[in-house]
Design a protein that fits this description.
dihydroneopterin aldolase activity, alpha+beta, 121 residues, binds ligand LV4SOB2L, GTP Cyclohydrolase I, domain 2, lyase, isomerase activity, 7,8-dihydroneopterin aldolase, folate biosynthesis, 5 strands, 29% helix
Length: 121
């Protein structure tokens, strides 16, 4: 399987378990590996035959604008579900970091994999 990458994508969203977090937007930093087969797109040199990382990045910011949840776990799970519904993504790894949430750490967050990894094609 091949991968389309989106690294260190920053989005603003309302997220957090504490009352003060409900009143502001915070930055999340996202890394995505999107499983697909790039051969048809490469053969035809055609954006329509691959996962368009620009379109997907815009969709992620729209998702962040529309959603307001407590946990980064919820954000990650619902975003993965949305992307897999909206695009032809057979497998993905999504890492969501919340920089600054724990001042002593560079970032904290979650990483999930969803879908079926297809090897040796
Ligand atoms: N596993 C998690 N732990 C914590 C989360 C979270 O989303 N997942 N969130 C918080 C607070 O919102 C924190 O980020 C505020 O600084 C604490 N722990």
């Amino acid at each position: 399987m091949d991968l389309v990458l989106i690294e260190a994508l920053e989005v603003d969203t309302v997220i957090g378990v504490y009352d003060w977090e409900r009143t502001l937007t915070q930055k999340l930093r996202l890394d995505l590996m999107l499983g697909t087969d790039i051969r048809a797109a490469a053969a035809d040199d055609d954006i329509a035959r691959t996962l368009d990382y620009a379109t997907i990045s815009a969709r992620i910011q729209a998702f962040a604008d529309e959603h307001d949840v407590a946990l980064v776990e919820t954000f990650a799970e619902r975003l993965a579900e949305t992307l897999r519904e909206d695009f032809d993504i057979v497998w993905l790894r999504l890492t969501v970091r919340k920089p600054g949430a724990v001042p002593a750490a560079a970032a904290v967050g979650v990483s999930i994999e969803r879908g079926q990894w297809k090897g040796d094609t």
